């Protein structure tokens, strides 16, 4: 069967069926009131369906436009020890970049999506043991890992994980896990050699123990 003929055939059946129904209704001369009511009902139904379709299309377009407008690029400044310019709430699809203002410390921005049923604060979660943290965050990799050497800008960001955007809605733990006083060059060499594993270098406690953590909600 010719597909084109099949398509046009089905399309043609619709107006023919409607026309036939109207002819039958119009031929019922014994009950003109019923005919008028049937015609009005059909017109009302068609109008309602058209209005609903138009409303759904307009709503979807407006939502998509609003999301695109809300998504932006955020420049975060890493300091010893914290994040400046990181909002509490951002739109899905927002790109995160980082400037490292420290003269000596290499910093990272690790963003981990928390489970929906997790209600504890980021500070409480970071106070847990490594085993307890792993139980909460699971085996999935972070959504984003940005690394920046001391005194470097956005153009020198190293995207260790992700493409710089946070796309999935939810609550994120953000922190720097690099040891205090770690040699920047040694850290980068360990990161390059370690592949997917977290770099292990000499130094003090992780930066988050000095207050370098935050919570971000992606909407």
Secondary-structure blueprint:
Elements: H1 3-27, H2 32-70, E1 73-79, E2 82-84, E3 89-90, E4 94-100, E5 107-113, H3 122-126, H4 130-137, E6 144-148, E7 158-161, E8 165-166, E9 170-175, H5 184-194, E10 213-218
Parallel strand pairs: 1-4, 3-10
Antiparallel strand pairs: 1-2, 4-8, 5-6, 5-9, 6-7, 9-10
Main traits of this protein?
six-stranded mixed sheet, 219 residues, elongated, alpha+beta, four-stranded mixed sheet, Immunoglobulin-like
- Which architecture of the largest domain per CATH? Sandwich
**Major sheet: size, sense and barrel closure?**
6 strands, mixed
- Can you tell me the number of structural domains? 2
Number of strands: 10
Fraction in helix: 40-55%
The coarse overall form would be elongated
CATH class wording of the largest domain: Mainly Beta
Radius of gyration from CA coordinates: 30 Å
Question: Which strand order does the major sheet show?
Answer: 3-10-9-5-6-7
SSE pattern, N- to C-terminal: HHEEEEEHHEEEEHE
CATH superfamily of the largest domain: Cupredoxins -  blue copper proteins
Mean pLDDT: 81
Give the strand content: 15-25%
Alpha-beta classification = alpha+beta
Number of helices in the DSSP assignment = 5
**What are the segments in which pLDDT stays under 50 over at least 5 consecutive residues?**
1-28
**CATH-defined topology of the largest domain:** Immunoglobulin-like
Structure description:
The chain has helices spanning 3-27, 32-70, 122-126, 130-137, 184-194, and strands spanning 73-79, 82-84, 89-90, 94-100, 107-113, 144-148, 158-161, 165-166, 170-175, 213-218. It folds into 2 domains: 3-70; 73-218, Cupredoxins -  blue copper proteins (Immunoglobulin-like), CATH 2.60.40.420. The strands form 2 sheets. It has a 6-stranded mixed β-sheet, with no helix packed on it. Strands 2-1-4-8 form a 4-stranded mixed β-sheet, with no helix packed on it. Mean pLDDT is 81; it is low at 1-28. The longest helix is centred in the first third of the chain and has 39 residues, at 32-70. By secondary structure, it is of the alpha+beta class. It starts with a helix and ends with a strand. The radius of gyration is 30 Å and the shape is elongated. Strand 1 and strand 2 form a beta hairpin. It contains 5 helices and 10 strands; from the N terminus they run ααβββββααββββαβ.
